[in-house]
Design brief:
By secondary structure, the protein is mainly alpha-helical. Helix content is about 80%, strand content about 0%. The chain has one domain: Up-down Bundle (Four Helix Bundle (Hemerythrin (Met), subunit A)), CATH 1.20.120. The mean pLDDT is about 95.
């Protein structure tokens, strides 16, 4: 069975979401402890340390933009508008989001924002194909 590039990359994007969740959760657990992780998490906790905070924010950022990717990538497949352009934009989105995570983790400014911008532009290209082609 043939799986369009856009759907294959979308599956990889879901794996990336799991990576975000697991990394952020691991670093929160390192700071707050296993009891916190296993508990109901009802108590107010101190602010996250720098790394745990960055990973948590990177996860939140990915969760904000991943629904747009889902709509764009499934949309072009369902509409029969996949092309070399959408495949390139799809891979650009994923690679940029993969690059974004360690940059945010390390606290690298500007380049991290550039990676986010490239990923977002790739989604805009795919949405443009979906809407206007």
């Amino acid at each position: 069975m043939y799986l369009p590039t856009e759907l294959a990359v979308l599956v990889l994007g879901a794996v990336l979401l799991l990576v975000h969740i697991m990394l952020a959760g691991q670093f929160k657990t390192l700071q707050y402890g296993v009891e916190w992780n296993a508990g109901a998490r009802d108590a107010d906790m101190p602010p996250l340390n720098a790394v745990a905070g960055r990973l948590s924010r990177a996860q939140a950022n990915y969760q904000e933009t991943f629904p747009v990717a889902i709509v764009a990538l499934i949309g072009v497949v369902l509409a029969g508008k996949t092309s070399d352009l959408t495949a390139i934009a799809t891979w650009t989105w994923l690679v940029s989001r993969i690059v974004y995570l360690p940059l945010y983790w390390a606290g690298v400014p500007y380049v991290r924002s550039l990676a986010w911008g490239v990923a977002t532009l790739a989604l805009v290209v795919i949405l443009g194909v979906l809407l206007f082609s």
